[in-house]
Amino acid sequence: MSDTRVTPAGPDMPEESYAYSEKRTRELTKGQVRRARILGVVMLVLAAAVVLLLIPGTTGVATFDLSLSDEQVQLAPLAIPSTGALYILAMVLAFLGATQFFRGFQGKATIILGISFGVFVIAVMIWATAGEQFNLTSMLVSTVARSTPIALGALSGILCERAGVVNIGIEGMLLGGAFTGVVFGSLIGGWVGLLAATIVGGILALLLAVLAINFRVDQIIIGVVINLLILSLTSFLTAQLLVEKPEWNDAPIFPAIKIPILGDIPILGPVLFDQTIMVYAMYVLIGLTTWFLFRTRWGLRTRAVGENPRAADSLGVSVYKTRYLAVIYGGMVGGFAGAWFTLGTVGRFDEGMTGGRGFIGLAAMIFGAWNPIGAFAAALIFGFSDSLQQKLAIIETPIPGEFLAMAPYLVTIIVVAGLVGRVRPPAADGQPYEKQ
Amino acid sequence: MSTQTPDSLKSPDLPPPSKGRLFFTQLTTATDWRTALLIPFLAVVMALVIGVLIIMATGSSFSEAMNAYLALLKGSVGSLRAISETLTAATPLILTGLSVALAFRAGLFNIGGEGQLLIGGMFAVFVGFSITGLPWFIHLPLALLAGIVGGAIWGFIPGFLKAKTGAHEVIVTIMLNYIALRLVDFFLKTEIFQREGRNDPVSKNVEASSNLPGLLTAIDPALRVHAGLIVALLAAVFIHWLLFRTTTGFEFRAVGANPAAAKYAGMSVGRTYILVMVIAGALAGLAGTGQVLGVLDRATPGFSAGLGFDGIAVALLGRSNPIGVVFAALLFGGLSAGGQQMQASANVGIDLIGVIQALIIIFVAAPALIAAIFRLKTPVASTQISKGWGS
């Protein structure tokens, strides 16, 4: 994934004043081989977990309904013999793990880890459904919906960090957007709520930009502060205002809009093309941002400023202006994403309702190697495990959903520990820039 | 931070000997006491002023806002009971503040206080309820030790990964916080932890022999301040001694000021990262231990209640100095205890305290803002602790 990046100031630039760029060699060092092996072991452990934890006691057929009841074309349910399927999935995991262990997937290791994680989640799903019946399509519909704030939160982080400003205040931006969205949505209307949420995200990003770029305050501290400030402020305002005026906390929910023709495709139709406008906006934003970042002059400058601000500056790019624009755009995406929690689902605000989704977005950003498409893929996997976890919470399984809920965080630690390939943040990420 | 160094020293290029000497003198010079006290004081004042504006923005009058602050003051120092509540709230904040401050000194940003606190608390609760029949002078130290070990394990992971793979401690600790949160949810529903006859996730109560005894219960059994306060103060003394009176502490600060120069001087940077995170984790674990053995008597989901994050504010306000941390924790403890009173008698929600705390961090971390508002002439530099993860 990281291969698609065009770095204007590549790793071969002279290094005397670039304190932050470290020379990286292409050949595998001993350490890299060892880390590749560790990753292989992780995947073999997943395979063993399927065999030892999921297979014993699992019998019967797992039946997955593939059509929603209101669809015209009804597909026959998919009946999968659970034990056999679990053995096959365990073999796939074991094969991937062994290949990784002995040969290594190198650059593709992140994708392979994503696939292994997906396979494991599918195994858990089959195990939970053995002897029962459940609607796969409806779960995929909720997967796409649930990945929306995660993918957009990740996109918000990508925009800031590609320009060299670390944003761990995504959670605060989501929460701020959710709150403003519901208040303005209740008082004036859904679209105004969406706009207000976007603006509030932009204002929070402006705070981040001013403190990080002009005052050169530690960017991690600002992120922590934004999270604390918004969590407390929204809780305070909820208790002081929304409790007394419940009509301020009752916003219209955006309905699902079916796209003609595309929406009638079995499975894919309802999953991808019968969603709310926020999901469609996510598709557009992911596509647009990818195009912007990698195909336009603005994107090239943004990435240059995030990789090597000094060089970009000497070529006449305004580092401050570029960073400001990227951070504010990122914040607006974050605020918009936050509106999903209220206007996209329940229409009311609860204290701390984002429940760490901003940090899962941060995880998706890292897992996706600071690339919008990669982050979207990661968000889908995390959204899938999120939906499955809700499902498991209802059907009371012996292995509880907490472990699925933990998985995105674990996977992220594996990724940042460099156990997979070369996931690398922008070189000047988190470095304040001082014009000389 | 007193560990500010000129930009020329921040480069990993090895500094020439003369600059090296400069760097070691800077390590030992004391900070200007005026900036050390003035900026935090003005930061608190500014935050309180903005707090009034926020209260008034929700439709209260100025006098109602002043009433709220009066209640805040009464609830924090207005009576023996209020003081006891302030000290009770300050106890875990001293420890999480020390945890963050120690890491800051070594150039690490420990956002993982929440997770370390939870794991430490769970270890302590387990020892507290599972062992019976021991006298208190064996059981209590054992439970405290368990909490220290639990926190240390959760601190070791990011330290080890940082040292061996360069994984940024901020990302790893954030992720570990959430893993810890889910682990606690899970274990509280297992037979080992869950209280008999309960369906909700709540642990068994700890034995009386592992309770941290109340300090003022002789006067009034309702006074909650407990012996954990003494543990916390001892920890502050220990960290001060460690940082400023031992070779190990000197290495911590040297690595924090300039890892490349420290390596050049023959110190093991990786070993320092691991050791610092283990101690920082142990301190946060002890904070969780104090909560479960002294206040709650049991573990419930998310009993960390943001104390780990508050530790960041405490460490910043206390300028990463153990003595400063104790005073900052007392202030924040007072705010939190007074906030209860403010909510009860002035009908202003306790979440305002969180807003004020966040504002305090902004002003302390960006002293240039304060300097601009009050037209100070003192030169001030913004706090830079984390190294950014662009390696």
The most extensive interface, with participating residues per chain, is: A-B, 61 and 59 residues
The share of residues in extended strands of chain B comes to under 5%
Choose one word for the global shape of chain B.
globular
By DSSP (H or I, 4+ residues per run), the number of helices of chain B equals 16
CATH architecture name of one domain in chain B: Orthogonal Bundle
- Lateral strand order in the biggest sheet of chain A: 2-1-3
Helical coverage of chain A, percent range = 55-70%
Distance between the termini of chain B: 22 Å
Oligomer: heterodimer
Order of helices and strands of chain A: HEEHHEHHHHEHEHHHHHHH
- Gyration radius from CA atoms of chain A, angstroms: 23 Å
Please summarize the sheet with the most strands of chain A: 3 strands, mixed
Total strand count of chain B, please? 0
Helices and strands in order, then pairings?
The complex is a heterodimer of chains A (436) and B (391).
Chain A: H1 30-54, E1 61-65, E2 78-81, H2 82-102, H3 109-129, E3 133-135, H4 136-162, H5 170-187, H6 190-214, H7 219-242, E4 257-258, H8 268-273, E5 274-275, H9 277-295, H10 297-307, H11 309-314, H12 319-346, H13 357-367, H14 372-395, H15 402-416
Helix pairs in contact in A: 1-2, 1-3, 2-3, 3-14, 4-9, 4-12, 4-13, 4-14, 5-6, 5-7, 5-12, 5-13, 6-7, 6-12, 9-10, 10-12, 13-14, 13-15, 14-15
Chain B: H1 7-10, H2 17-28, H3 33-57, H4 62-77, H5 80-105, H6 113-130, H7 136-165, H8 169-187, H9 228-245, H10 247-257, H11 259-264, H12 269-296, H13 307-317, H14 322-346, H15 351-365, H16 367-374
Helix pairs in contact in B: 3-15, 4-5, 4-14, 5-9, 5-12, 5-13, 5-14, 6-7, 6-8, 6-12, 6-13, 7-8, 7-12, 9-10, 9-12, 9-14, 10-12, 13-14, 13-15, 14-15, 15-16
Detailed description of the structure:
The complex is a heterodimer of chains A (436) and B (391). Chain A is mainly α and 436 residues long. Chain A has a domain at 141-371. Helices cover 64% and strands 4% of the residues of chain A. Chain A contains 15 helices and 5 strands. Chain A has a 3-stranded mixed sheet with strand order 2-1-3. A two-stranded antiparallel sheet of chain A has the order 4-5. In chain A, α6 packs antiparallel against α12 (319-346). Chain B has a domain at 90-332: ABC transporter involved in vitamin B12 uptake, BtuC (Orthogonal Bundle), CATH 1.10.3470. Chain B is an all-alpha fold. Mean pLDDT of chain B is 85; it is low at 1-30. Chain B has 16 helices and no strands. In chain B, α9 packs across α10 (247-257) and α10 (247-257) packs across α12 (269-296). Chain B is globular and about 60 Å long. At the A-B interface, α7, α13 and α15 of A face α8, α13 and α15 of B.
